C-alpha cells in the first residue's frame, strides 16, 4: 500500500513548514504549493532527508486554474490525497478607514477563496478518512484594527470550514480549523512546531470526537 499523502497549500518557512515536517515524520509523503521557489526547494530537501517523497509547485493559489491544475497533478501522480492543509493568509497593515474594497477582496481571495479552489481540486482524490485542516487565528474573534482584512479572512475561512465539514462528513471526510489563540514566537507554546503538533492532533482525531473548530491555547 502506498504511503499517505498530505498536500500543504501556502507552503513557506513558518507553520506550514512545521506541518509538512510533522506529517513527514509520521510517514506521509508531501506535496507543497507555495510562491517562493527557494523556500520550496529548501523545504523539499529537508523533507526528503526525513524519508518523504516530495513534490512541489511554485504557484499563486489565487490563480484558480493554476492552483487546480497543481493539486490535480499531485493527485494524479500519487493516486490519493489523504490530508489537505491550508495555511495562506494576507497581512495588510491597513485599518478600516484606509482599506479599500478591492484590497479586501484581494485578501479574502487568498485567505478564504483559495481554500475552495484547492478543496474542490483535491476532492476526487480523497476518500473516507480524509482530512482537511486550516491554520486558524484568534483574529477571527479579536481582530486588530491595524490589519482589518486579516480578521475577515480568518472568520471567513473558519465559517467555510464548518460548511465543508458538514458537506463531506457523510463521505467520511472531515474538516477542521485550528484556532491559534496566541502570537507565533520562536520559543514557548506558540512556536510553529507546537502549532503543527496541535494541527496533527486535530487531524488525528476520531470521527466520534470530531469538531470542526479546535482552539489551541498553548
Automatic annotation (TrEMBL):
Cross-referenced SUPFAM superfamilies: NAD(P)-binding Rossmann-fold domains
InterPro entries registered for this protein in UniProt: NAD(P)-bd_dom_sf, SDR_fam
Signal peptide stretch: none
Keyword list, A-Z: Oxidoreductase
UniProt record similarity statement: Belongs to the short-chain dehydrogenases/reductases (SDR) family.
Name of the featured protein: SDR family oxidoreductase
Organism listed in the record: Nocardioides cavernae
Amino acid at each position: 500500500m502506498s504511503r499517505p499523502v498530505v498536500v500543504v497549500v501556502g507552503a513557506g518557512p513558518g507553520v506550514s513548514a512545521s506541518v509538512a515536517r510533522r506529517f513527514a515524520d509520521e510517514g506521509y509523503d508531501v506535496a507543497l504549493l507555495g510562491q517562493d521557489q527557494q523556500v520550496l526547494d529548501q523545504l523539499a530537501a529537508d523533507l526528503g532527508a526525513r524519508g518523504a517523497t516530495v513534490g512541489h509547485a511554485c504557484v499563486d493559489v489565487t490563480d484558480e486554474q493554476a492552483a487546480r491544475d497543481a493539486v490535480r497533478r499531485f493527485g494524479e501522480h500519487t493516486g490519493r490525497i489523504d490530508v489537505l492543509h491550508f495555511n495562506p493568509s494576507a497581512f495588510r497593515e491597513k485599518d478600516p478607514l484606509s482599506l479599500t474594497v478591492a484590497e479586501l477582496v484581494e485578501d479574502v481571495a487568498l485567505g478564504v477563496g483559495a481554500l475552495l479552489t484547492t478543496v474542490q481540486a483535491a476532492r476526487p482524490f480523497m476518500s473516507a478518512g480524509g482530512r482537511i485542516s486550516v491554520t486558524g487565528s484568534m483574529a477571527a474573534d479579536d481582530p486588530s484594527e491595524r490589519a482589518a482584512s486579516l480578521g475577515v479572512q480568518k472568520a471567513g475561512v473558519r465559517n467555510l470550514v464548518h460548511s465543508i465539514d458538514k458537506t463531506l462528513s457523510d463521505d467520511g471526510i472531515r474538516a477542521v480549523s485550528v484556532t491559534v489563540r496566541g502570537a507565533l514566537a520562536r520559543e514557548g507554546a506558540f512556536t510553529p512546531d507546537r502549532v503543527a503538533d496541535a494541527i496533527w492532533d486535530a487531524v488525528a482525531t476520531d470521527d466520534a470526537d470530531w469538531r470542526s473548530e479546535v482552539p489551541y491555547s498553548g
